[in-house]
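Hi L., both proteins are below.
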Amino acid sequence: MIRKTLTGTLLLMVLTLGACRWETTKKALKHGEVLKSSIESFEKNRVKLSTQVVETLQQAEESLTEPNPDLPEVSKDFEKEWTGIQARYNKLKSDFERVGKSSDEYFGTLDQLSSSINNERLRKEELGKNAELRKKWDLTYKEAGQSIDKVTTVLESGNDFHMVLVASSIRQKLNQNVDELHNIAEQAKTLLADLEAFTQAGRQLVEGGE
């Protein structure tokens, strides 16, 4: 009876231990998949953002180098595209933060797995590998963060360019208005001169009538 009970207990312990290890394995795989998904999403938005920025700036340059460019139209088109770029950039930053969070969870799981190793030498060896890998990753993540900050500067420059473009379009419109006013003045001058002739003709008619 005691032997059966002991055997049953041992079997239960083995099954429980196996289940725990399987749960740990699933957890590790899950964090690995989440990290991979975060990185892929980040890369997708990085490529799209890069393409959008380059194409938008090239289009603006081409439009501005045309003879007599329509600055208000160029400004409107640029604002539309740049607004989309800002939204894409915010998504990129969100993905970057998600990569950071998922990588923390990933390394946490790695250390948890390594810490569960019974053999002290092997445990220290695995934890050392984790630490070395984490050090390299942290450096890479830091450099990526600095690059993202530089993108922020580029986008701010784009915002400044848009403001200059708007101001230029307003000045262009004002110059057009000044030209229109000049034309109206010339037309008025001619019309008033014609009216003066009409007045003289009327006077002559009256004087002749007298």
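That was the first. Here is the second:
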Amino acid sequence: MDSGDTVTAEELLSFARQGHRLPDWQGERGIELDEFLAGVNHSEAPTAGRPEGSARWWATHYSKGQPLVDIVMPSLDARGS
């Protein structure tokens, strides 16, 4: 997606919007993609488009146990996360 492959991005988003797992990646990938896919496919990950979806869950998941910085809290609170 770094090269501006918007078709691939839209395809991946369509899986998420339908609540499906993303297909296994067949090409080269780095640690960032592995970490992203682990979050997207996590059994406790909120499903896109559902009211119970939580921005706080995503922020906490990707913070890897580090405390969230104060500046993000108003945004998370405003989303009702």
